[in-house]
Structure formats: structure tokens, C-alpha cells
């Protein structure tokens, strides 16, 4: 008769294999898998007002359709943001497998602060389950609203329009002078053959 200590590892291995096969069949079943990405951009309208543009992308990366999809992003404080342009919530009847929907809205702020936003909430219904399922968007980095930022230096197209023709003529003349002044490889090879 085998001792109990020798059967224990076999039972553990059998239990792990059983759990692995159950989890594999659960993940292989047809179900929606919702992934959401929340993006924000700041735009200073005037020295006292800044606009926060919010875009939320909702993807269904699962193998089945999600129904009654609802997006809610009510984390924006009314103390910081004066006006909301658009809706912070949106609903769709269904989101097919492999598809994407987007929602955007803008907020205006006159308060100088660092704002920590929360992820958006997405609820959806799976055909075989009665309960609503929940998913959350990615969080956003802290927003430095009405911060004193150094102006970004961008390439000035007016300089290109003003001096572009002179620069191109100088470049063509320099390339031509280089071609004339630099000996070609074939003439250098002929000179080396004559010397020998």
C-alpha cells in the first residue's frame, strides 16, 4: 500500500490539470472583451480659460457581440470645469466583435489646478448572462490646467516661403561645384594605371 505522502503530489498535479482545463474552456467560450482608452488634450483658449478635449475609444476584442453598451465619464468636477460641451455619457445598442466606437466631448476651465481624473465606466450585456458587465477605461495622467508653459518652438513656414528659393539655388550651385571639383573614380583609376 502506498504511503499518503507519495500520493499527495499526484493529487496536486491532477488538481492543477483539472483547473487548467476548466479555465481553458472558460476562456475559449464566445464572449465580448471590452477594452477602452481615454485620451485628453489641453488647449489654451485665452489666458484665463483652457479647454480639455476628451476622446474615449471603446474596443470589443472578444469573439462575441456586446449589447446595451453604455459609457459614463462623470468624474469631471463642476468646481474645476465651468462648462461641458457635449455629453459625458453615450450608449450604443451593440458593439460587434472586433469593432471600435469613439465618443468625445470638451470641458472648459477657468481654475488653475492639477486635476486627477478617474477612468470612464463602460457597462455592457453578455447574451448568456443577466447581470451587466463592467469595464473601465485607461486612467489619464494628472492634468496641469492653466499651467504656465513655455511656448513650443515650431518650424516657421513663412521663413521657408521667404528664403526657400535662395536656399535651393545655393544648394544646386554647391552640388554642381562638388561634381566639377571632385575627381571621378574612373579618372582616378586611369591616372593610377598610367603611373605603373
TrEMBL record:
It comes from the Eukaryota. One of its GO terms (cellular component) is endoplasmic reticulum. Keywords: Signal. Residues 1-28 form the signal peptide. The keyword Ubl conjugation does not apply. The keyword Iron does not apply. This is Translocon-associated protein subunit beta.
